[in-house]
Amino acid sequence: MSGDMNQARTFEILTAEPVRKRRKPKFRSDEEKALILAEALAPGANVSAVARAHGMDPSQLFGWRRTALASGTVRRLDKGPADETTFTRFEAVRTDLVEIWVGDTALRVSAAIDPALLVGIVKAVRRG
Of 14, 27, 42, 68, which alpha carbon lies 20 to 30 A from 109's? Predict the structure, then answer.
């Protein structure tokens, strides 16, 4: 060693935050995947919010949705079927009124309506 070991030396100490660990993939049954996917494919659904609600990365749910739509086994409800069959569409609204679409007919009822009465009304509208 050519230098004197008793000379003053300067050291720089580096500190770093630990890297956040990736989430471990959670095993989900086919039924659970189907329910989550159905929720994400509903008209007006926010896929990222659905994914976070189920504790998963949004990119994973977007991938499931893309694969399901590409396979042709599912389709979005807002596009409608190829034949003349009509679907009933429900939309969540933050009010005491509930709007239910049966074909082209809109039913606006109180959220406190008796379920049996509502079933009777929907059946009558479908018949009419």
Answer: 42
